[in-house]
Here is the input.
Amino acid sequence: MASSRFSLAPTAFAAGYRLEAHESVGSTNALALDRARAGDPGRLWIVSKKQESGRGRRGRPWATAEGNLAATLLLADGIDLKNAATLGFVAGLALAEALDAVLPAGLVSVGVDGGTTSGGRFELKWPNDVLASGAKLAGILLESTALADGRNAVAVGIGVNVVAHPEDVPYPATSLKAMGAAVDAETLFLALSDAWTSNAATWDGARGLAAIRRRWLGRAAGIGSEVAVRVDGSVVRGVFETIDEDCRFVIRDRTGATLAIAAGDVHFGAVASAGAA
Here is the structure.
């Protein structure tokens, strides 16, 4: 059943984005890619407050409880897949800015994997999570499909724990409701569609990636912290130094050597020391 409560920000509408809203879906990413294969031109947001068969990274299940936000943006203008991989950083920035816009100041303290410090902002955990007080609040998943004409379509999936968060996960998690924020999925999506529009304009087909990288680093979780990164079944340890020009995760190991990691699961602090990565 379609929902009429979701709406696009005026900036998003003016930039040519469209909206398809549902009360419940199987997966907003899967639906977006189906639309692409059926010829949709893209710049289409598909949103829902309930997702029953969503996916996380590496094929992990990601169900969305009723009242949470599942949002996917379909881009079908033939983006190069190497450049498309950096859209996750655009999405993370956009969501963090949207959360800043709709939540009261001072609601969040900064920290990683459960530790907190002062700061009062949302942090971005490489490659695809948004943290609040060190706990996972949202995740981002990029998926692509090849179209009949040889171009690629990309689905930028964003899932936010608005009213509920998973309890049986090996990392801290939270929701806006648990944080004491009275914000609904529709209000958050309105702010997200606005923030995405401005950040995507900065990204500009990856021509503005350097600016996105600088802004992402300004919100990065755990810089200077001990990290453990699981890469292809093995664990790499070191200190998180930066992300490089290609947005790879750069750590310095105990020998002083640096390593740039393109994909992996990152754990900070006590979790990294305990080897739980």
Observations:
- The chain has two domains: 10-217, 226-273.
- The longest strand covers residues 135-146.
